[in-house]
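Worked example 4.2. Below are the chains of a multi-component assembly; read each line carefully before continuing.
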Amino acid sequence: MSTVSTPGHRSWTGAVKGWTSRTLPPKQVLPERQPAYVASWIYVFGVLTLTALLVVVASGLVLAIGGAVWWHTSSIGHFTNSVHLWSVELFFACMVIHLWGKFWMAAWRGRRGLTWVTGVIAFVTSIATAFTGYLTQSNFDSQWISGEAKDGINSIGVGAWFNVLNPAQMLMWHIVLLPLAVGIIAVLHIVLVRNRGVVPPLGDEGKEVPR
Amino acid sequence: MTATAERRRRATPDSHDYPTRSYDLVKEFVVALAVVTALSLLLAAIFSSPDDKAITMSGWAKADPADVVATAAGELAGTTTSATYGPPYNNASEGQSVLGLKLQKWGGVGIPINSADLVLQPLRDVAADPGLATALRVWDTLQASAQTRLATAYSDALAKAPDGNPARVAPGRYGPVPSLTSAFLRLAASGGLEGALTSSGTFYGGDQTRAMLLLSDGAYLEDQAVADHLGGDQWGMMNEVGNYPGQPWMWLYTFWYQVKPFSTSDNADAQVWALMMALTVGLALIPWIPGLRDIPRWIPVHRLVWREHYRRTQQS
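Applying the procedure described above to all two chains together yields the following structure tokens:
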């Protein structure tokens, strides 16, 4: 059944559409121009982090096809695992450089505090995701790391719900829950970046913007 | 100066008010994706990835049978790490606390494990071993205090024996304990212990908690890890076997375990977690913490990032 909208009455769809277009105006989604001060290699590390994440996910999907222990018995599986490992190393290297770059640029200025916060949450969630990966390798590293890690997790009272000695549970966290969290936070982070634009240079506060 | 004027003076300009230059985001993304993919493939092809096989109970029994027997005796005596652990496995202790908060105790015993059952339950499933059946029957008739006394006596005797060798233990009153531990060693060596611990009573065994607790109670696992520079005081949590980078992003978490007071504290895990949580919250809240948020102004690394902009604005 359809209804005729009356003036002053807004549908839920219209409200979501309005919020979406206000949050991310179409011209800010993929702009072809950036402020002239965006001219440094440090800006590349954000997109490098994102692309490394895509390689991590892609190699993880291939590993998922073979199953949890496939990589121990297949040379292709082992190579895929190696790609997964090294893309994770690159992902964190790029992310840490990106984080430090944003710190020295004080990139939280101009109502960009939430962008910084989502970045920190993405960093911490990524650490948890990688950590559960080490627990689910089903090899000696997994045995040792889980045996050590249980004491930390148990000491804060959550060991019964997040049992690092249970690789079946950790696998679910590693391939479903935590990647989902990282993905959602990454999307939110990128939306905020596009919404606010790239932070202007330090020292320009209160100055006439040079045109 | 009025508050409004002061706010305006300190306000960050709108990035959209600046002059612009051409910037191809999609091209940047595609090139970045190609570079990262190529690098990942290259690093994987050159360095591969570590995959040292997991220790098996059979391997443990063959490599260090004395450790298996000592661990089994300790489980029966209730003196191993897991037996005295506390939550979430048992109530043998309160566990760790930090700033008076007994988080481990408050978490409760969510994974109840009786350490003696790590030995007895697999043994009860063994068939066609009359000697073991008799030893189990005798053990079951003993009172708990007698069980503990006999197992502790045997455990102590093993510790005094040359190389912990069960065959060279001094004669004494150990009841059925030597029979139980030697049967446990035979079961471990046969390769049947993993299944007995992880999938007994259930076809699908995906939970290694009991097997890992048993293995961790022995000395063999840690000996192997220390030999591979993975000990707790060797930054072990962030390392992998061999010369692989492991998890360098966990360096700060691992760092605290290497220094006092954490390296000598009984509550190190809870303390390090609390400290890391506080530091993480601090990192997230930097934009609102006076002093910390001003560091980038005091140490002008940003002048490197925006050197072109500053040069241009100085000229104009």
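Take a moment to check your reading of the output against the notes. The beta strands of chain B are 20-22. The first helix of chain B runs from residue 3 to 10.
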